[in-house]
Each structure stands twice: as structure tokens, then as C-alpha cells.
């Protein structure tokens, strides 16, 4: 204590030992290994209450954020003073305002000069025209050989015909592409419009999913920002091909299952508080799981590559339900009493069956409904969808004619996909995808001086489908981190991300001889981005870390995010088909396999 009467010298006065409270004793570690670690300063994490284990609290929002939030010290240091009511409202709704702002940024990037290049680039030559035909007659048709030139001419015409064409992909993605053509016409902006819409919405979804997954609005916005500047997602958002549609429904299904997980666990926690049982039938309807099944059906009805996601998500949500019951002490009957072992196993089996039914059957019905246009077309030869008249030409067999014709059509599609071995200049092996070993050139021109804005002797103009290198290469480290979190720390978030990424990536390894391309990987880009975001969260450190630790982590994380954004801007000219001098184009070909 400071005593002015003694010249301000600090003097320690004696005190009664009995009046001095003793330091609170730390609980003795349970195991010998934990006791050994405690000698080195280790402290076991705080035990989280059961209801918070089931549903961790959200960081902000109505019912979470106070009605009146104290002013921000950071804004005060910057000399910014917002009205208290406005500041409190911004804090309360930051969980939506932040993701919407990130999505608006992504939307501006995707819609600027969306109509360029003014051409049918890469597989747009198939899907833009198939989409137009679907909206005209309900099935895909053949087109004249000079159709591309006529459609993109200065005075365009659409040489539409009604004779059916053989196609190898289901119709949902083409219906979506065609919606933009119905609004803006049969032109590059029209057939790319819905891709830019889905690309922008997927950034918004990812930001909200990241917020729910990590319980952090900041990390959710970081995830959305990273995907908005991923080159592969960006290019596919500006190109009318099917793979971005596959990604959109894949991500939607994952997000809906996350909401279902939180909602179901909240109901379990509420029933525990009321002293009731946790039987599955007492939890009511699960509309978000049904909506996820519809999304998976739409994903598969765009491309069959969505099929493995159904199986993986059935297993994933069943494990989530089982782990919730284990967390609350197993399945209990009315009054909270344990039930017999055999009945408990039966109830677990019912969980798995219900998971398969709600996801698998809903997806199957959605897939079948997507073929309505083809089913409703004429069975007269040459006047309906391809093979629509097959059952009429081959009477007999089981089921209605439309079912037999559709089954035959699918058998030929399966044969095509499993035996596609035609070599292509830009094909790649899935082993090289994360390394970006062989990107795909969607469009390329070599204008000379005075052509297409070229101001040097030789220029290049390209749309290259490739991920932002720094983001993807950081993603490799992030996947290793997630694997560690899942195996060593039993982090369910890391397991969910790895499961989703495996569903979109691993099936391609069984087609080592098939002609496949890097842009198929866009379906798992959101989960690669979430893995990087999880790693960034670990770099930032826990909230209770020291200021120096938080500062060092924030500096490293900030440098990584800024580096990824710079990397995107550097490659932006070859994402958008801008005319640049040939030396500048060569400088962006970091690997020889990119040429």
C-alpha cells in the first residue's frame, strides 16, 4: 500500500494469515499423462454445459446481441462516432449484413462485362443451345453446323430445329441456364446470367454456412471473401456450363443439413430440460433435411457426379444423430429412464433408416420429376425427346412405356460416361487437381497490333479455368490441418468438411482412364475454402489467448488473405479474357503444364 505520510514508500503491512483467502486449488488431473502435462503448464479446457455442447451459442443476432451495445473502442480511436441506436442495430444484424456485403462484392466481380467474350466458349456450345431447346419444346434438339456463327453474329438469328438430340446429362442445369435466356435473350449475357446469379448466391450461402459452422461472423465473412476471389469459381460463375450448378446444390444441401443439425439438437436440449425422452419420433418434422434431399436430387439431376454426395450425406447425418444421443447419455424413454440395449440398437437403426429415407428417397423423387419435360413429350418418332419412342418400338416388359424408355436412355448414358476415353488437350488426372497441374483453356485468341485492343506486336486473350493458386496451395495445408483436427481432436466440423470434400473429389479417382477435367473440382471448392477458413481461425487463436499471440495470429492470417486477393487480381486478366501483351501472358503461366 502507498502511505503518503511515509514519503510515498510502498510498505507491505503484516496481516492475519487467517484473513487472507487462499488461492483456489486447481482440480487434480484425472490421468497420469494429464498430471505430467500439468507440470509443464497444461490446463484442461473448461467443461462446457451439455446444452452448449449440443448447440453452441451464435456470436450475434436478435436474442443474442444486447439491445444496447457499448461503442467500439476501435472506431473511437479512429475518430468515428456512430449513433448508439445505429451501432447497436449494426451489431445485432452483422450476421446478415457482413455476408450480404461480401456477396455484393462477389456479384460485382461476376456481372462486370459478363457478356464477354462474345462467343460460345468451350462447352457453352452444347449447354446454351440445349437450354434454349428445353424452354421451347421440353427436350434437347439438334442444331445446324453453322448455328454458333449465326447466334453470335452482329445481326444474330437462332436456327432452332425440333428433331431430338442425344444428350448425356440430366436437364436441371440446362433449365436454369435457359431461364436467363428467356429473360435476356439468346446471347452471351443471357446464357451466363443465371450462372453469375448462382455464383453470387453461393458466396452468400458460404458466408452464412461458415458463420454457423465456426460460430463466428468474422470467419464466415472470410470464407465468403475467399470464395469470391477463387479463380475457378469465378470463371465457372461467368460460363454457361453445368458444374457450377452442381456446386450450388451441393453447398445448399450441406447448409440445410447444418441447420437441421442445430435445430434437432436444440429440440433434444429442450426435451432434456423438460425431463422427457429423446426418441427420434418426438422431435417432429425435419423440413430442412427434406429440403436438403431436394437439393441433392437437383444436384444429381444436373450431373450424375452428384450421386456420391447422397450416400455420404446419408452417413454423415446418421452419425450426427447418433453422436447427439450418445452425448446426452444414450436414448432414453419417457421420464428420462434408460431403455433396454436391444431397443436402443433398434432406435439407432431407425435413425439410419430415416436418414436414408428422407435424403435418398427425396433426392430420387426430385431427380425423376426433373425429367418431366422429356416424359411429357410426344412418343411419335422424331417428335419427342430422344429415345422417348423406344418403348413403343419395343413393346413388352415391365412398367409403363415412359419408364421403360427412360430406363433404356439411362443405360446408354451410363455406357457413355463409363467408356469416355477420347483424348483431349486439356484433360487432367485428379491426382493433380489440388496442385492445379492442368487447367482448362475455355477461350484463346492471339490478336495482333491494332486488333481487340492490342497495342504491341503480339498479344494474348484467354479465359483460363484455374483456381487462385495461393488459395488452393494453402488449401492443401488446410486439409492436413482438418485431418489432424478430426483424428486427434475429434472435431466434428473438420470431419464434416472432409466428408463433403471426399464426396465431390474421391469418386473421380476410379476413372483413371476417363477423360476428365480440372473444372469438375469446382463442386468441392466451397469445402476447400472452409478448410482454409478453419485454419485461419486457428491462426487467429482462441479468444482467451494473450494479446501478443492474437496479434501475431491476426498478422499471419491477414497476410494470407491479402496474398490470396492479390493473387486473384494478378490472374484477373486471364480469368476474364482481357487482351494483354504476350510477355504479360507468359508471366502468368507459372507452370509449363498451364500452356
Automatic annotation (TrEMBL):
Keyword Cell membrane: yes
Transmembrane segments: 189-206, 213-234, 240-259, 352-376, 470-487, 517-540, 552-575
Organism of origin: Kitasatospora griseola
Location of the protein in the cell: Cell membrane; Endomembrane system
Enzyme Commission number, as recorded: 2.4.1.-
Pathway(s) served: Protein modification; protein glycosylation
First-listed, main subcellular location of the protein, grouped into a coarse class: membrane
Matches recorded under Pfam families: PMT (PF02366), PMT_4TMC (PF16192)
GO molecular function terms listed in the Swiss-Prot or TrEMBL record: dolichyl-phosphate-mannose-protein mannosyltransferase activity
Region (Disordered): 1-31
Function according to Swiss-Prot or TrEMBL: Protein O-mannosyltransferase that catalyzes the transfer of a single mannose residue from a polyprenol phospho-mannosyl lipidic donor to the hydroxyl group of selected serine and threonine residues in acceptor proteins.
Name assigned to this protein: Polyprenol-phosphate-mannose--protein mannosyltransferase
Amino acid at each position: 500500500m502507498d502511505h503518503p505520510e511515509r514519503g510515498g514508500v510502498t510498505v507491505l503491512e503484516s496481516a492475519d494469515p487467517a484473513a487472507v483467502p487462499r488461492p483456489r486449488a486447481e482440480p487434480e488431473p484425472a490421468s497420469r499423462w494429464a498430471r505430467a502435462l500439468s507440470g509443464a503448464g497444461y490446463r484442461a479446457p473448461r467443461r462446457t454445459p451439455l446444452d452448449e455442447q449440443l448447440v453452441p451459442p451464435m456470436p450475434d443476432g436478435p436474442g443474442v446481441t444486447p439491445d444496447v451495445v457499448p461503442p467500439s473502442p476501435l472506431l473511437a480511436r479512429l475518430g468515428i462516432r456512430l449513433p448508439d441506436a445505429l451501432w447497436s442495430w449494426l451489431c445485432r444484424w452483422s450476421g446478415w449484413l457482413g455476408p450480404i456485403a461480401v456477396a455484393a462484392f462477389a456479384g460485382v466481380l461476376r456481372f462486370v462485362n459478363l457478356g464477354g467474350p462474345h462467343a460460345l466458349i468451350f462447352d457453352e456450345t452444347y449447354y446454351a443451345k440445349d437450354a434454349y431447346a428445353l424452354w421451347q419444346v421440353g427436350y434437347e434438339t439438334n442444331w445446324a453446323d453453322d448455328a454458333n456463327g449465326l447466334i453470335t453474329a452482329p445481326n444474330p438469328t437462332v436456327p432452332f430445329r425440333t428433331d431430338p438430340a442425344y444428350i448425356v446429362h440430366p436437364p436441371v442445369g440446362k433449365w436454369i441456364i435457359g431461364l436467363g435466356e428467356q429473360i435476356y435473350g439468346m446471347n452471351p449475357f443471357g446464357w451466363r446470367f443465371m450462372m453469375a446469379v448462382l455464383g453470387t448466391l453461393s458466396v452468400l450461402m458460404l458466408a452464412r454456412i461458415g458463420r454457423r459452422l465456426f460460430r463466428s461472423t468474422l470467419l464466415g465473412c472470410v470464407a465468403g471473401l475467399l470464395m469470391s476471389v477463387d479463380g475457378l469459381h469465378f470463371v465457372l460463375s461467368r460460363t454457361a456450363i453445368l458444374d457450377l450448378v452442381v456446386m450450388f446444390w451441393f453447398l445448399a444441401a450441406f447448409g440445410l443439413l447444418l441447420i437441421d443439425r442445430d435445430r434437432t439438437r436444440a429440440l433434444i436440449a429442450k426435451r432434456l430440460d423438460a425431463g422427457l425422452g429423446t426418441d427420434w419420433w418426438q422431435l417432429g418434422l425435419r423440413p430442412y433435411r427434406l429440403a436438403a434431399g431436394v437439393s441433392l436430387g437437383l444436384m444429381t439431376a444436373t450431373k450424375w457426379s452428384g450421386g456420391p454426395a447422397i450416400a455420404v450425406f446419408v452417413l454423415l447425418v446418421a452419425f450426427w444423430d447418433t453422436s447427439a444421443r450418445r452425448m446426452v447419455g444414450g436414448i432414453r424413454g419417457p421420464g428420462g429412464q434408460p431403455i433396454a440395449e436391444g431397443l436402443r440398437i433398434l432406435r439407432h437403426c431407425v435413425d439410419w433408416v430415416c436418414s436414408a429415407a428422407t435424403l435418398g428417397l427425396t433426392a430420387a423423387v426430385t431427380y425423376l420429376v426433373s425429367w418431366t419435360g422429356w416424359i411429357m413429350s410426344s412418343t411419335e418418332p422424331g417428335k419427342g425427346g430422344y429415345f422417348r419412342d423406344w418403348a413403343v418400338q419395343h413393346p413388352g416388359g415391365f412398367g409403363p412405356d415412359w419408364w421403360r424408355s427412360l430406363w433404356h436412355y439411362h443405360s446408354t448414358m451410363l455406357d457413355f460416361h463409363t467408356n469416355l476415353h477420347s483424348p483431349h488437350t486439356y484433360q487432367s488426372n485428379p491426382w493433380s487437381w489440388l496442385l492445379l497441374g492442368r487447367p482448362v483453356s475455355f477461350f484463346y485468341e492471339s490478336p495482333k497490333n491494332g486488333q481487340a485492343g492490342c497495342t504491341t506486336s503480339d498479344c494474348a486473350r484467354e479465359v483460363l479455368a484455374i483456381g487462385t493458386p495461393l488459395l488452393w496451395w494453402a488449401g492443401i495445408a488446410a486439409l492436413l490441418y482438418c485431418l489432424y483436427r478430426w483424428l486427434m481432436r475429434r472435431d466434428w466440423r473438420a470431419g464434416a468438411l472432409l466428408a463433403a470434400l471426399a464426396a465431390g473429389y474421391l469418386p473421380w479417382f476410379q476413372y483413371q482412364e476417363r477423360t476428365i477435367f480440372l473444372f469438375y473440382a469446382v463442386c468441392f471448392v466451397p469445402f476447400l475454402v472452409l478448410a482454409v477458413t478453419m485454419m485461419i481461425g486457428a491462426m487467429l487463436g482462441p479468444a482467451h489467448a494473450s494479446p501478443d499471440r492474437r496479434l501475431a495470429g491476426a498478422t499471419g492470417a491477414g497476410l494470407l488473405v491479402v496474398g490470396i486477393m492479390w493473387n486473384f487480381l494478378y490472374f484477373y486478366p486471364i480469368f476474364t479474357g482481357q487482351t494483354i501483351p504476350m510477355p504479360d501472358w507468359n508471366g502468368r503461366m507459372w507452370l509449363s503444364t498451364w500452356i
